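README: folding subset

This subset contains proteins for which both the sequence and a predicted structure token string are available. Records are stored as plain text. Below is the entry for DUF1566 domain-containing protein (232 residues), shown exactly as it appears on disk.
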Amino acid sequence: MEKHSISVLGADKKQYEIADFRARGMDYTNAIGIIVTTDFMSRILAFDTWQERWGNTDRVLTEEQNESVAMQTFSGFDLTKRIVEAQVNIDGMTAAKRCWNYQKGDLQWYLPCLMELGVLRAYRDEINKAMEEIGCPDECLLPTEDSDETWVWSSSENSQGYSWYVSFSNGYFNVYGKGNSFMVRAVAAFQPSPSLLTGEAKSNDCLHSDEVLINMLRERGYKGELTKTLTI
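--- output ---
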């Protein structure tokens, strides 16, 4: 199994191991979010969750992505920025606007792309365990098989009328109409501390082979296809 770590970003902007954070007498109210670090990416996951529509539109706001392309785009930052700029005149809140306008920790949060959501789903149980250990209430946890709502929007578009989502109950990736309301979780980029991963330190979002990515996802239950060259 690939190296990974689950840690916490304190309100002081410092990265803590879960046990150390607890030993200092702190809980989730003293933190900005949970840090999920793997060999090829590191993201801060917000504790807050929302229910929002992706946003009806008469055109593709970013680019049409099939599953292979969507799963090999590593960051939803630029996608979210482009979506928000295109949704300026759309009334009401949308999934991308909700994440982009999130203020916690003075970070630039965004709506994760399909690949990022896939990683969060792959480590769902480890992430939830870490959040429980720092006192997060149930509403902060990622959805499980027992949750009422398990579909989470991504920033990856499929077509004019549909965008990609991840079912956190079973790990399936699929598309659905943009006018529907699903769960929304914001993420932000993070540069991890090398000491929290054993072996050679990796830079954030460094390029890895398709084989590394495929093996990680296969081990975690991914059933889709990855056929194109990895893009960041």
